[in-house]
UniProtKB/TrEMBL annotation:
Keywords: Heme, Iron, Membrane, Metal-binding, Monooxygenase, Oxidoreductase, Transmembrane, Transmembrane helix. Pfam families: p450. It comes from Hevea brasiliensis (Para rubber tree). This is Cytochrome P450. GO terms for molecular function: heme binding; iron ion binding; monooxygenase activity; oxidoreductase activity, acting on paired donors, with incorporation or reduction of molecular oxygen. Heme binds at residue 411. The keyword Transmembrane helix applies. Its main location: membrane.
Amino acid sequence: MALLFYLLFWVSFSALIFIIHRTSRYRRLRLPPGNLGLPFLGETLQLISAYKTENPEPFIDERVSRFGSLFTTHVFGEPTVFSVDPETNRFILQNEGKLFESSYPSSISNLLGKHSLLLMKGSLHKKMHSLTMSFANSSIIRDHLLVDIDRLVRLNLDSWTDRVFLMEEAKKITFELTMKQLMSFDPGEWTEGLRKEYLLVIEGFFTVPLPIFSTTYRRAIKARTKVAEALSLIVRQRRRESEAGERKNDMLEALLSADDGGFSDEEIVDFLVALLVAGYETTSTIMTLAVKFLTETPLALAQLKEEHEGIRAKKSEGEALKWSDYKSMPFTQCVVNETLRVANIISGVFRRAMTDINIKGYTIPKGWKVFASFRAVHLDHDHFKDARTFNPWRWQTANVFTPFGGGPRLCPGYELARVELSVFLHHLVTSFSWTPAEEDKLVFFPTTRTRKRYPINVHRRNHVKS
Ligand code: HEM
């Protein structure tokens, strides 16, 4: 008993000394101004409840007006510096691996797997990032991927009748596209089964990562195991085929035949899981929101239709889109940019300070989290006039814009996402007219999405060729 009391005393005493030491160190450091909120909880509850509203930036707006564009808060269990300053954000992105390193909540990193590109660091990250970039660059899209994107988008749209939930359809399309690009799989029962498991994994990203407390998390872990088992089978089979000289032109082949002896099955599976995550929710949400914003902005929709009907008019019935067609869609690119700006699927990125960092007269202490907010910059009236209105015409001039991040972690799928969205819009506006089936609203937590999966009533257009 005495020993227990003695131990308890020393643990509490050491914790107290640690807290006093840390607090006085922080006082000396000149932290960015802000509020750490309640013990342990910090300001997490304020953050969550703010993003469940339709206002995109209530949490940040309020603090920026009180403290400025660099402020301190405490969210998801850690003190965190928020940056709403484009110059600081660029500095954070460019110094990845030197002053900052990427940092995901444990709910996400556990489900991704330890060999995921999103979690890799140092030289391995550099190598894998450039491998991924090389597999989704313009010439690969032009020469190999575009034909499948065109075919699979069309195949999906052909099955639409009366009423569709656009969010669901867009997810199906992007999953099928990614499966094709990664592993040369055409859609079928197997891919659809895998997608269902996949949805359960993604649900687990935004829950408490404790299986005892959360059924969603338990279900996500089980689904992650099933996905990994299914992918392992494919990897093994493809390894055998590859060794026998039977080569396919996809990402999996690039991984199997990489220099320095290639990768283990487990590494490849984690890598594939991460790529499926990175390209799936993001691109499908942006597809849905482009349609929502266009529906609400008839002038933009009319101009977009004109652009695509012009392209269609020069083609024979059912002829696939070519790279030169994609390159002659200037207004579509304005629509893509403006959708990315207003929707901000990735609202910003979390990093961890690897050392004490001096910035704008303040210090970010080593080990603290930093959140570089893209959304707050993209929706700031100082950088974009009338920033919260969807106005694709503004892209006729460039600006501070980082929807795909930057620096060593620049999104490898940035061109691919643009192509997928452009092809989707092409077939949508040239084949259908639509009206919203119900009013639907945007929310921003835990992810950017519409509340009701954006149901629309679709009407097939009889295509008139000029
Ligand atoms: C509209 C669609 C998309 C948006 C808005 C988007 C946005 C982003 C952003 C902001 C990052 C940087 C994260 C960071 O710095 O920590 C990122 C990373 C990444 N994205 Fe995308 N992305 C999209 C589509 C895609 C697609 C289609 C792919 C498929 C190839 C993809 C693959 C990745 C990967 C693998 C990373 C991790 C890079 C790394 O950590 O090195 N993304 N994405």
